Amino acid sequence: xxxxxVFVSFDYENDKSYKRLLEAWDANPxxxxxxxxxxxxxxxxxxxxxxxxxxxxxINDATYTLVIVGKEANKQHKDHKExxxxxxxxxxxxxxxxxxxxxVAVKIxxx
Length: 111
Hints:
The protein is of the alpha/beta class. The chain has helices at 12-27, 48-61, 80-83, 88-98; strands at residues 4-9, 35-37, 64-69, 102-107. The protein has four helices and four strands, in the order βαβαβααβ. Strands 2-1-3-4 form a four-stranded parallel β-sheet, with helices on both faces.
């Protein structure tokens, strides 16, 4: 079975455990779950333009975007003006829509 090219959008500070669970499912040969994770690893840069460049490349290489919507998903980022969106997840979703990726959102931590 061919793996889907998926960019996973998630709040790195709060929801990375869910992203790691997806990676574990993919690595488990006894679990029928396959995807090519095109998400970026932690980007060690404080430059918004560098982060945008890396994220845009990864999103453009994907055909699907899975958005993990945690309780902090809509929190305003300190660099929101420079990002051009409320936060990085909003940026990733907008870029994914512009690239015409198929979008799937999963809400976690429902209250």
